[in-house]
Design goal:
Layout lengths: L6 E5 L4 H5 L1 H11 L4 E6 L13 E4 L6 H17 L4 E4 L4 H12 L4 E3 L4 H7 L13 H11 L20 H7 L5 E6 L11 H12 L4 E5 L4 H13 L3 E3 L6 H10 L2 E5 L2 H8 L4 E4 L19 E2 L22 H4 L3 H12 L1
Parallel strand pairs: 1-2, 1-4, 2-3, 4-5, 6-7, 6-9, 7-8, 9-10, 10-11
Organism: Acetobacteroides hydrogenigenes
GO biological process, one term: lipopolysaccharide core region biosynthetic process
Protein name: ADP-heptose:LPS heptosyltransferase
Length: 345
């Protein structure tokens, strides 16, 4: 494009961690291009991520099956009526966004699409002949896409909460007042290759629950995770689960008050990073080299093992080639405890 667009439509539907990674970039876009009107399309429930940004948010609630086809076209025509868009910026590149792109192109609207570096990521996990190197981060890929839309940005971002916001009463009723160090633990992820064995993580919870100067706050979602964390909450006096009790926006408020978050390579790493909370992240089948590390998180807070089979997967969704998930099982609870204590002092 030769001229700077004034009205842009940005598409990134999922996953939660990837949507969270748009925040530093879109924040920078809005700050550095104040005359540009930004509208973001994503899943309706991620709206709290964008509430502190000067953008318009549009939730895409498309059903599955035949009804979803009608939903999709209604959604497209709603977008067409909403604005005369100067450009569509696709930060997702999936079937939904590809179809939207095609329709907008047919209507004469320019489109730019993220380069996900699929070949580079494939080579990163190609055992035994992998090309082991740091790939561009997702933040860099997002900003590069905007640059091709004639909207160059220097990604500058600290936190979604520039001023401290007190916890709401309903959260305070669950957690009480902060009179100790708060350690967040989010022990789950979508795929087994990214999950530290729960029986080992429980040892970490048990250790810190015995300290009077610490409160352990457990994060998770879904019925199975809620049930598992409820067991830990019942077992350990200084452990409190917020899983299933508060919503995304409230979780961000709690994360802002943490002294450290312990997370897998998962959305919680990215959510905590948006609040400038230090994250101790545990990596197994995946690797930070794929470009999904948390915003401004120190490399020294990564816990991972140097194995020639790692990474075996970009997303952690492959079965372990050895069958024992040694990349996770060989990490000791003591090493995690030591790193947490280094962070909280």
């Amino acid at each position: 494009m030769n001229s700077k667009p004034a009205k842009i439509l940005v598409i990134r539907l999922s996953a939660l961690g990837d949507v969270a990674m748009t925040i530093p970039v879109i924040h920078s876009l809005v700050k550095q291009h104040p005359n540009v009107e930004v509208t973001v399309i994503s899943k309706p429930w991620v709206r709290p991520l964008f509430e502190t940004l000067d953008v318009r948010f549009v939730g895409a609630d498309i059903r599955k099956g035949r009804k979803g086809v009608a939903d999709f076209f209604r959604f497209f025509f709603m977008l067409r009526r909403m604005e005369n868009w100067d450009i569509v910026v696709d930060l997702h590149d999936v079937i939904f966004s590809k179809l939207l792109r095609k329709l907008f192109r047919l209507c004469g609207t320019p489109v730019v699409t993220i380069d996900k570096g699929r070949q580079d990521k494939k080579e990163l996990v190609m055992y035994p002949n992998k090309k082991f190197r740091q790939l561009p981060t997702t933040f860099e890929r997002y900003s590069d896409t905007l640059k091709r839309a004639n909207l160059p940005v220097k990604v500058e971002f600290d936190t979604i909460f520039p001023t401290s916001i007190p916890l709401t009463k309903d959260i305070a009723d669950i957690l009480g007042n902060k009179e100790a160090k708060w350690i967040g633990i989010a022990p789950f992820a979508q795929h087994k290759g990214k999950v530290y064995p729960p029986e080992k993580m429980e040892q970490v919870v048990q250790y810190f629950s015995q300290r009077n100067d610490v409160k352990v706050i457990l994060f998770g979602g879904g019925k199975a995770e809620v049930a598992a964390l409820k067991e830990w909450e019942d077992k350990y006096e200084n452990a409190v689960s917020v899983a299933g009790k508060i919503k995304l926006g409230q979780e961000l408020l709690v994360m802002d008050k943490l002294d450290v978050m312990v997370s897998m390579d998962s959305a919680n790493m990215h959510l905590a990073s948006l609040t400038a909370t230090p994250v101790v992240s545990i990596w197994g089948a995946t690797h930070p080299y794929a470009g999904f590390y948390g915003w401004k998180q120190p490399i020294k807070n990564i816990i991972q093992l140097d194995l020639d089979c790692r990474p075996c997967s970009v997303y952690g969704n492959k079965e372990c080639m050895w069958g024992d998930y040694r990349c996770m099982n060989s990490i000791t609870p003591e090493s995690i405890i030591k790193k947490i204590e280094e962070v909280i002092g």
